[in-house]
Amino acid sequence: MGGGLVCGGQDIIDMLNKAFGDPTTAEYQFAKANNIFDTVPNGPNNYRALIAAYSEAGIEISVTWGAYLRQLGKNPSGQKDIHEIAQARYKALKADVPMETSKHQETDAPRGGKHVKKHDGSGHSDPSKIDSPYPLT
User: Fold this and answer.
1) pLDDT at 7 over 90
2) Is the peptide bond before 44 cis (omega within 30 degrees of 0)?
3) Which end of the chain has fewer CB atoms at under 10 Å, N or C?
4) Range of the domain at 66
5) Alpha helix stretches (DSSP H) within 26-107
6) CA R_g for the chain
7) 40-61 mean pLDDT
């Protein structure tokens, strides 16, 4: 899977939606069976643990996406964002809840500004959602 951030990161969004969007797929079930997203701490350099969790779940992290995650987590508020992404993935995988991933302009304050926004879903009609800022400045 995976690739560079092409088309403003849309390729990464598409890949994540394919991997985590349908609990009945083999890809989702592999991620569920290898779910270590709960090990991602809320602290310095936690982007490394998030990258490891994605890798364990079968998701390839490109150099560009890794650089994005490193930049996202370079300060305490970004470290919290990294932790929240991981917790949302962990909870959804444990409960077989589909996940939708999206991005918003960093300056788009109503949708989240510089921070990740998440929603912990409860089932197929209420998917979990992760909306990340892109690009980061």
Assistant:
1) no
2) no
3) C
4) 7-133
5) 26-33, 46-56, 63-72, 76-95
6) 14
7) 97
Q: 36 burial class (0-12, 13-18, 19+ CB within 10 angstroms)?
A: middle
Residue 97 vs residues 5, 44, 74, 88: alpha-carbon distances, Å? 26, 29, 29, 10
- Indicate whether 11 belongs to any domain: yes
- pTM of the shown model: 0.87
Question: Taking 70 as the threshold, does the pLDDT of residue 111 lie above it?
Answer: no
**Residue entry with tokens 């510089």:** 114
Say if 52 falls within a structural domain. yes
For position 96, what pLDDT does the model report? 97
In a domain, 57, yes or no: yes
Q: How many angstroms separate the CA atoms of 85 and 37, rounded?
A: 9
Could you tell me if residue 78 is inside a domain? yes
* Residue 27 vs residues 4, 11, 18, 75: alpha-carbon distances, Å: 20, 17, 8, 32
C-beta pairs of 117-122 under 8 Å, 24+ apart in sequence: 118/84, 118/85, 118/88, 119/88, 120/88, 120/91, 120/92, 121/92, 121/97, 122/95, 122/97
Structurally, how many domains does the chain consist of?
Answer: 1
Tokens of 68: 């994005």
| Eight-state DSSP code of residue 57 | T
